[in-house]
Amino acid sequence: MSTGQRRIDIEDVGEVTVARFVDKKILDEGNIQIIGNQLFGLVEEDGRMKIVLDFTNVEYLSSAALGKLITLDKKVKKARGKLRLCSIRPEIYEVFAITKLNKLFDIREDQEAALEGL
Amino acid sequence: MSAVDQCRISIPSDTAKGQEVQERIVGELERREYPPRDIFGMRLSLEEGIINAIKHGNRNDPQKSVHIEWYISDEKVRVEIEDEGAGFRPEDVPDPTLEENLERPSGRGIMLMKAFLTLVEYNDRGNRLVLEKIRGVDPPGHDD
To answer: Which CATH superfamily is domain B5-134 in?
Structure first.
């Protein structure tokens, strides 16, 4: 896999950046590293302030991926931006609930709900 | 009813090799038509367990190996993952769900394994992990 390969699709909806994961499995370390860098770049390089992460495609997610999301959340907060997560299937939501990260993240049902009032 | 699948292999400290083992075990569970929740939990646990062994156990040392042994029947899957590191004390890993630890980016792997599997156990040295899932049985304390 090339390190430059895009692992997230970006779509601009007004002022909001919708980032949709391409992969079904966000498990392997190398892949997670690339995804993390691409997500951090949205805030640190592109200066995007309102981000919605769309999990429609995601079937598996490891604790290392959760770590990247936590770091992204910190970066967005530092930049005084807003981050929302959406379209998380039940098994994946359970991973957030077990680790109590459903309290840390602003999780919405679907993209429409995530965009509302952002 | 299929015969028991039993195997022991050693892989280098390479996550790609770890993925191959993960696919082999998960493929066997799929072939035996384990429930999707069992497969989800075992895949997640294998990922967490093998990565921990490579990264934290062997500290990515290419000279060290990870030894993986599995037993899969139609009723139960048991996987043992052993690294060549010094080991650790699982009780030293801070509770990631406490308010003060919620923003820590690591330390959630063991908790996830325990939430999905029937048994998650380390040896005394902390370099050998046992993962067990009885078909269709949720771990103690699971409340749905």
So the answer is: Histidine kinase-like ATPase, C-terminal domain (3.30.565.10)
